[in-house]
Design goal:
The complex is a heterodimer. By secondary structure, chain A is mostly beta strands. Chain A has strands spanning 3-7, 10-14, 19-26, 32-38, 45-50, 56-59, 62-66, 70-75, 84-91, 99-101, 105-110. By secondary structure, chain B is mainly beta. Chain B is 0% helix and 59% strand. Classes of the chains: A mainly beta, B mainly beta.
Chain lengths: 111, 111
């Protein structure tokens, strides 16, 4: 059974304090790893897709990386507006769905 | 720009009422999904559709049904709403194994 585990569940940082969020996956034949940002009361907003180990993608203060067992979302010098829940999901290509979500990391950036 | 819209942001219904949640996408994607999201449980798939008039049960289909008469529109139906269906409902669309895009969500309260 495909599984995606995110850690930590919650993280509180000071503004400017860089850190990383972890997404470990056990998926038979990974075909894509997705990162989303979700603000309270809203739908998840797409951030990145990674397809193969070694791939990296960046957007402003965020950088996502992928290995054969896990993905990291690195946040550099975060600002309060980066506070949100970050979700990752793995796609195995099984059927029309095949998307397994983690439960998310709730990130709080204090000014 | 990607656009997934849901008919209501907030909805309050009485136990036993029939509830319709509608999702519309403008990206010509074959695959559409309905999830519910609850604290501590993450995203759970209710139903998905990979073509017009086609539907498949997800992980928690009990108490729900769906309808897809047109490619761009996917409806979730609660035949007889119950209090344990109080939740955040999220619609999503995807083309093949590419990125899955979410709507803004509907927060449903069943009294």
């Amino acid at each position: 059974e495909d599984q995606v585990t995110q850690s930590p569940e919650a993280l509180r940082l000071q503004e400017g304090e860089s850190s990383s969020l972890n997404c470990s996956y056990t998926v038979s034949g990974l075909r894509g790893l997705f990162w989303y940002r979700q603000d309270p009361g809203k739908g998840p907003e797409f951030l990145f897709t990674l397809y193969s180990a070694g791939e990296e993608k960046e957007k402003e203060r965020l950088k996502a990386t992928l290995t054969k067992k896990e993905s990291f979302l690195h946040i550099t010098a975060p600002k309060p507006e980066d506070s949100a829940t970050y979700l990752c999901a793995a796609y195995s290509g099984g059927g029309a769905d095949g998307l397994t979500f983690g439960k998310g990391t709730h990130l709080i950036i204090q000014p | 720009d990607v656009k997934v819209t849901q008919s209501s942001r907030y909805l309050v219904k009485r136990t036993g009422e029939k509830v319709f949640l509608e999702c519309v996408q403008d990206m010509d994607h074959e695959n559409m999904f309905w999830y519910r999201q609850d604290p501590g449980l993450g995203l759970r798939l209710i139903y998905f559709s990979y073509d017009v008039k086609m539907k498949e049960k997800g992980d928690i289909p009990e108490g729900y049904s769906v309808s897809r008469e047109k490619k761009e529109r996917f409806s979730l139906i609660l035949e007889s709403a119950s209090t344990n269906q109080t939740s955040m409902y999220l619609c999503a669309t995807r083309w093949g194994g590419k990125t899955q895009y979410f709507g803004p969500g509907t927060r449903l309260l069943v009294l």
